[in-house]
Amino acid sequence: MIVNILIITAVFGYSGWMIYRHIQKGKQGACAGCDKAKSCAAASLDSPLSCCSSETSKI
Questions:
Q1: Quick one: pLDDT at residue 27?
Q2: Do 47 and 57 contact (CB within 8 A), yes or no?
Q3: How confident is the model at residue 58 (pLDDT cuts 50, 70, 90)?
Q4: What's the CA angle centered on 53, arms 34 and 58, to 5 degrees?
Q5: Which string of b and e fits 16-34 if b means at least 16 CB within 10 Å?
Q6: Which one of 3, 34, 58, 59 is most buried, counting C-beta atoms within 10 A?
Q7: At residue 23, does pLDDT exceed 90?
Q8: In terms of DSSP H, where are the helices of 1-59?
Q9: Whole-number Cα distances in Å, 39 to 14, 31, 33
């Protein structure tokens, strides 16, 4: 019984931590929240996939 409670607490605690991290990284923005940051090809200002470019895509 105690083992079950510990496992459930660990699962919910980890889930809460992941949600918290996701929200914090989301507040930083796309490139700032990315682990690769500026080494990513999409972060290049020349890339059409760039999250940091000043142009907006016209769809």
A1: 77
A2: no
A3: very low
A4: 115
A5: eeeeeeeeeeeeeeeeeeb
A6: 34
A7: no
A8: 2-28, 30-33
A9: 29, 10, 13
The pTM for the full model equals: 0.51
- Structure-token pair, residue 13: 């605690």
- Residue 48 to residue 1: CA distance in whole angstroms: 55
Q: Rounded to an integer, what distance in angstroms lies between the CA atom of residue 37 and that of residue 42?
A: 9
Take residue 53 and report the two structure tokens written for it. 């470019």
pLDDT band at 24 (very low <50, low <70, confident <90, very high): confident
**Tokens matching residue 29:** 């923005």
CB 32 within 8 A of CB 39: no
